Predict the structure of Signal recognition particle protein.
Amino acid sequence: MFESLQERLGSILNGLTGRGALSEADVTAALREVRRALIEADVALEVVRSFVEKVREKAVGAAVVKSIKPGQMVVKIVHDELVAMLGDEGKAIDLNAPAPVVIMMVGLQGSGKTTTTGKIAKRLTERQGKKVLMASLDTRRPAAQEQLRQLGEQVKVATLPIIAGQSPVDIARRAVQAGRLGGHDVVILDTAGRTHIDEPLMVEMADIRKVSSPHEILLVADALTGQDAVNLARNFDERVGITGLVLTRMDGDGRGGAALSMRAVTGKPVKLIGVGEKMDALEEFHPKRIADRILG
Ligand code: GDP
């Protein structure tokens, strides 16, 4: 669909072979293309700006060697910097705490929280032999608790029995207690989302956090979030304090710029990516692959 960054930079820079070093003007022209590629990949503008400045520092004066075309050289600088900013390869969910280890899932409605809760529960059960309990804290959407119960049946993971009329905080407290009494290794709390960030949502998340002391707080976000990704990540991180990110819908057409945006503003690792609706469609995060995808 788009011309790749390599092709674009090639037409600007590849005539320069043998000139010694890239000039400021060459780099400025190249960075214009880098900026375009990142914006097309849905990286948030403020992140694009700081990223481009970092690349500028590395690219100006970089020696042009005969064996490598200048366009390729800039692509390599951009690629390496993207990988560095995207962070570590597949950081696992940290279960290194006294049982039951509480994982709190947060995010907007429709981001894929409930689905991801089921996927993580299945993975921890099947691959790591953990005894997991899931609980839905979504009391606003009547079907939400039932949706998680059905997922639990599907992946053969226990869910906290539903008691009508309890508040999210009550359910969180009961889940941790049930996890302890039932000898569960892990309790996953699937919190309620809203269509957008608002004050009551943040207060509710903070209250749930207080009563359940989660060891991991994972922000689940749609990979197609685009320019809103920075606000979303910053808000959840400042108000609730996240420990990691899960990007869903990476099976879609999006180029995954949200991964870079959210990682850049929070400094928190992308731990997993969702690649489909099925319960097995969860993968480790590979910064190199995402960098390739962002560059197109
Ligand atoms: P929640 O409101 O955040 O709990 O979102 P849900 O878990 O109910 O997910 C909303 C929709 O997104 C459902 O139809 C899911 O099947 C779908 N979904 C979740 N994760 C993925 C993913 O990684 N890829 C795709 N294609 N669909 C997903």
